Amino acid sequence: MTTMPDVEPSRLGGLDTPVPDAVVTGPVVYVSGWALLGGRAPSFVEVSVEGGGTMRARTRLPRPDVAEAFPDLGDAAVSGFEVRVPIDLPPGEKRTVSLWVRCRTAGVGEWVLPKRTVVLNHPAADLDDAELAEELAADTAAALARVEVRTDPRHLLVFTHSLALGGGQLWLQELLTGMVNGHGWRASVVSESDGPLRADCAELGIPVHVTTHYRHSTVASYEGHVGELARFAKCSGAGVALVNTLGAFVAADAARRADLPTAWVIHESFTLPDFAYQNYGPVSPPHAVWARWESSLAEVDRLLFVAEATRELFLPYSKPERCRTIRYGTPMWKFGGHTRPEVRRHARQSLGFADDDTVLVTLGVVEARKGHGPLVSAMERIRDVHPRARLSIVGLQWSTYGRALIDTVRRAGLEDSVSLVPVQRDPLPWLQAADIFVNSSDIESLPRSILESVCCGVPVAATDVFGAREMIVDGETGWLFEPNDVDALTSALLRALDSTAAERNGMARAAHALLADWLDPAGYARDYSAVLAELADQRCTTRGDHVDR
Q1: How large is the C-alpha radius of gyration of the chain?
Q2: CA 432 to CA 454: how far, in whole Å?
Q3: Number of C-beta neighbours around residue 216 at 10 A
Q4: Are the C-beta atoms of 192 and 169 separated by less than 8 Å?
Q5: Three-class secondary structure assignment of 518-541
Q6: What is the dihedral of CA 209, 174, 156, 227, to 10 degrees?
């Protein structure tokens, strides 16, 4: 733990990383530390790095070491912050940069931590790695040239990252259900990890092959995995491939080398350097592997996105005509933007809510990027103004962050106001009971939980990020607020809670009217079927194969 000497007792904190005059490897500066203003975690923390601009840090992160040093300060245990700042630094270059950290809480004050200087070193590409990559790629190409397999243009080979329960995984499962049952596709799935959705695939008659992880730190292991997946792809007899998530680029590369027309679905709204840092750490993939990543983005037949803002983020890596946004729907569209009064009463009673409670709900696995810590802090601020406000955070898991959240609720005396609910496969009862849905994530592409809330007639307060702003018009169909800012979050919740039930119902109706055209999941299954059929047919036409219908 770093402490700041000679500062006012009301201003405590410091930077842990990077240390002064550190040499930082790679084009991303990871900044972390802790701060307390007036004994509380600040409402927001901004980090400015020369060449990387100013970014809002993620706050309310667990810091048990600070809590041990300052046991009388309630927020000490969640005083941590962090942010990753990508810098435009070509391989082989070094640069000295300065960084600043600014903390602020409305009504308390502002504090700028002393400037810190670091050296960025982006290692040059290894020419031996590049040569090895070409050699191994040639071996794979030679092996694939010896394989002759008749392909079926209605057989879809899917590469995904996980069969566990999660937003991207459930999206894919719903898509496959629609395509198999509604559009006559046959499918096979390759997944990086196993999970309960394997049983759902089995019910659809979809075979599953579980491979090893997609993250490789050497050229040899990367090329070996690509070669294995490419052989599998070619021998599968599939006529077209669908790759799910940005991190599955090894699969996109493999499908390309197997000469399969390929659509790649990218849900993540991270820049490539930021995403690589999160998955590989300070040392990114070898430059030769990075080059495969970028070439795969440039050369796959289609890049598909769930939000227009995410599409715009990736346009520099491909051609506009290859990039398309297909927003997804949800099976909850059948509720038509309304929850019947008797259903709502039953849901509230079964979950233990009183008639005069104003119920706020948020759905999603409890983790730092979901902003649950700031949300709990906002609830602490509003409880005196709205003592009957009740928040259910549905998605608790036993992690460091989850345990810190439990402790935060206890220390703040919010047990009667905030409920932490384990992950639920069916969150519908909470949506049916809700008066307001809250999405406090600091990064999202197109949160399916917002769509589900709209379908149930629940107005939404959400961070103004990527796809959320494409679904919500502030003050008309919901409430938007800046991410990683407890002051802004509190203000948005007060706006929502101060509105009457009739006003909230009007917001919900307006939101449903705005999104109604694409809430039906049959729509995106139809659109995906059309895209994939077009790619398969184009390949058959190019080869002179006969296309059966």
Answers
A1: 25
A2: 11
A3: 19
A4: no
A5: HCCHHHHHHHHHHHHHHHHHHHHH
A6: -40
User: E strand or H helix at 93, and its extent?
Assistant: none
Distance of CA 119 to the CA centre of its chain: 30
User: Which residue is it, tokens 């397999």?
Assistant: 149
Instruction: Convert 341-396 into a string of H (helix), E (strand) and C (coil).
Output: HHHHHHHHHHHCCCCCCEEEEEECCCCHHHCHHHHHHHHHHHCCCCCCEEEEEEEE
Report whether pLDDT(546) > 70: no
- Distance between CA atoms of residues 305 and 245, nearest Å: 10
Taken in order of first residue, the domains within the chain and their CATH numbers are 11-121 (2.60.40.650), 127-325 (3.40.50.2000), 332-519 (3.40.50.2000)
Whether 489 and 297 have beta carbons less than 8 Å apart is answered as no
Q: Residue 34: what are its φ and ψ, rounded to 5°? A: -150, 155
Contact criterion met (CB below 8 Å) for 239 and 540: yes
Beta strands in 364-521 (DSSP E): 389-396, 418-422, 436-439, 460-463, 479-481
- Give the pLDDT band of residue 164 (cuts 50, 70, 90): confident
C-alpha–C-alpha distance, residues 479 and 351, integer Å: 26
CA 382 – CA 497 distance, rounded (Å): 9
The side-by-side arrangement of strands in the sheet containing 389-396 is: 418-422, 389-396, 358-363, 436-439, 460-463, 479-481
How far apart, in whole angstroms, are the C-alpha atoms of residue 372 and residue 409? 11
Task: Quote the tokens at residue 311.
Answer: 């599409």
Q: For residues 246 and 313, what is the distance between their CA atoms, to the nearest angstrom? A: 13
Mean of per-residue pLDDT scores for the chain = 92
pTM strictly above 0.90: no
- Residue by residue, what is the 3-state secondary structure of 289-332? HHHHHHHHHHHCCEEEECCHHHHHHHHHHCCHHHEEECCCCCHH
Question: How many CB atoms within 10 Å of residue 10?
Answer: 13
Dihedrals φ, ψ of 157, to 5°? -100, 120
Structure tokens at 506: 């009007």
Both structure tokens of 270: 């991270």
- The two beta strands, 238-244 and 152-160, are parallel
**CA-CA distances (angstroms) from residue 291 to 122, 157, 215, 284?**
15, 24, 15, 12
What is the residue whose two structure tokens read 């390929």? 262
Furthest-apart CA pair in the chain: how many Å? 79
**Single-letter amino acid code for the residue at 323:** C
Residue 542: which H helix or E strand, with range?
helix 521-543
If pLDDT is split at 50, 70 and 90, which confidence band does 518 have? confident
Cα dihedral 64→68→73→79 (10° resolution)? -30
60 secondary structure, DSSP code: E
pLDDT at 424: 87
457/331 Cα distance (integer angstroms): 14
Query: Is residue 233 within 8 Å of 256, Cβ to Cβ?
Result: no
pLDDT, one tens digit per residue, over 402-455 is 999 999 999 999 999 999 999 888 899 999 999 999 999 998 888 889 999 999
